[in-house]
Amino acid sequence: MAVRKEPRPCSIADALAVVGEKYSLLVLREACLGNGRFDQLVRNIGAPRDVLATRLRRLMDAGVLTKHAYSERPQRFEYRPTEAGLELEPVLMALKDWGDRHVRGGIDLPMMVEHSCGSELVPQVTCRTCGDPVRHEDLKAHAQAPGWNVSGPTAA
Q1: What angle do CA 121, 19, 90 make, to 5 degrees?
Q2: Is the pLDDT of residue 121 over 80?
Q3: Domains in the chain: how many in total?
Q4: What is the CATH number of the domain that holds 71?
């Protein structure tokens, strides 16, 4: 039996191909905070300018950011999230919450995000149908890609 060499088809891997490079999610964080000018991005992220320029191009090519002129002379641009970019904001909030709890241990947290209700945002993933919180023990995966099951590739 031949061993399959391609990895499992996966939307997580596909998403990481767009936003998984170092600094990409930080660019999106800053754009969502309204800090989309290049100099703001360099300062707030700490990325080298050439690396940042590459990330911005890739995020624009992927439809996550758009570029808007804010000055004609000299010509300068700011980067804003598209609808697809804004749909990643809950992912950023979940990563922030995880980092607050598991990396920083709840100590010296650098930022608090307030929800429109006035309370601190504590993100939670819920089922769209029943509204229950998502818990690992309540999930069951079903492979949909031909030639794959949950355990891995199926026999040819």
Answers
A1: 15
A2: yes
A3: 1
A4: 1.10.10.10
